[in-house]
Amino acid sequence: MRVLAAMSGGVDSAVAAARAVDAGHEVVGVHLALSRGATPAGGARARGCCTVEDAGDARRAADVLGIPFYVWDLSERFAADVVDDFTAEYAAGRTPNPCVRCNERVKFAALLDRALALGFDALATGHYARLEPDAAGGPPTLHRARDAAKDQSYVLAVVPPHRLARALLPLGDAPAKADVRAEAAGRGLAVADKPDSHDICFVPDGDARAWLAQRVPSRPGLVRDEEGAVLGEHDGVTGLTVGQRRGLRVGRPAADGRPRYVLSLSVVTGDVVVGPAERLDRTVVTGGPPTWTGPPAAVGDRLGAQLRAHGAEAACTVTAADPLEVVLDAPVRGVAPGQTLALYDGTRVVGSATVEAAR
């Protein structure tokens, strides 16, 4: 097959490209220029990805592998579908996951579409997830990675089956990240010891709240308890999220001395309601129209629900399929609108939906 390998400049995508070469595919490497001006002032290395330095790292890896390499500018698409979406969601009082949006709208949409138009058969990425053949001969099904600590199936749960059918995920069976680094070193790849990126790639210094404050008009408001009593003031709800504890300017401590958390916020009134941690517990989660990555769920199905990229899976029952609603066996704390609800049947990803409400 002709395979386009997305190379971020990190160790995972470099080893994924190498494994695609080993499998006998005709591989071409591509680095996505997504965020212009992503390098912080003073020459310090950016904390995210897709910087000029990362493009250089990707090119050097491609040279070692002996494959052609290109840089494609998808910054306009990324700005519209990921950065602007992130800003708008927070401005609306929601909590988005930009990595989910990037996979949904850029990597497995804009990038994959361009690859197919140029005659490639598949897109290879360094995601830790597995694609398994469908017993009935349909599109492959998405599964958790062998390495549970690095599993990234959650951020791929928004990708529909016809796009997953054109994906290659060579790292899905890797036992551990240490093995991938050792493999990279054995192949002579200089990125073998490169640190992982844990930040939002378009927020170079990692301070998302400050980044948002520069882009969303601030509207000061009041911090209230659940009875409506005013406890303090805030500069604006942008950057705040359900479950947040730090950064709240509460004028007086709770009567019991326990910390307070954001329970809800309103961009209409500007009010932020705070309370004890247990008031964040939610057992019913409602999502928007679902994306099924394989056979869809049905009412009554017993599945696992994951609500954060690195969150634990919680047992649940599907009570509505479209829009999606699930009832959790045990409360999950701090579920916020805008998050992604991913459903699992064992290791198989069933589908996902954007959280609209939780109670």
Automatic annotation (TrEMBL):
Positions that bind ATP: 6-13, 32, 126
Site (Interaction with tRNA): 127, 339
Main location: cytoplasm
Residues at the catalytic site: 102 (nucleophile), 201 (cysteine persulfide intermediate)
Residue ranges of domain tRNA-specific 2-thiouridylase MnmA-like C-terminal in the record: 291-355
rRNA-binding keyword on record: no
One Pfam family this sequence matches: tRNA_Me_trans_C
Keywords: ATP-binding, Cytoplasm, Disulfide bond, Nucleotide-binding, RNA-binding, Transferase, tRNA processing, tRNA-binding
Enzyme Commission (EC) number: 2.8.1.13
Annotated tRNA-specific 2-thiouridylase MnmA-like central domain residues: 211-275
Cellular localisation: Cytoplasm
Region (Interaction with tRNA): 150-152
Catalysed reactions, semicolon-separated: S-sulfanyl-L-cysteinyl-[protein] + uridine(34) in tRNA + AH2 + ATP = 2-thiouridine(34) in tRNA + L-cysteinyl-[protein] + A + AMP + diphosphate + H(+)
Tree of life domain: Bacteria
GO terms for MF: tRNA-uridine 2-sulfurtransferase activity
InterPro entries, per database record: MnmA-like, MnmA-like_C, MnmA-like_central, MnmA-like_central_sf, Rossmann-like_a/b/a_fold
UniProt xrefs under PANTHER family: MITOCHONDRIAL TRNA-SPECIFIC 2-THIOURIDYLASE 1, TRNA 5-METHYLAMINOMETHYL-2-THIOURIDYLATE -METHYLTRANSFERASE
Family affiliation: Belongs to the MnmA/TRMU family.
Task of the protein: Catalyzes the 2-thiolation of uridine at the wobble position (U34) of tRNA, leading to the formation of s(2)U34.
Protein name: tRNA-specific 2-thiouridylase MnmA
Organism: Pseudokineococcus basanitobsidens
UniProt gene name: mnmA
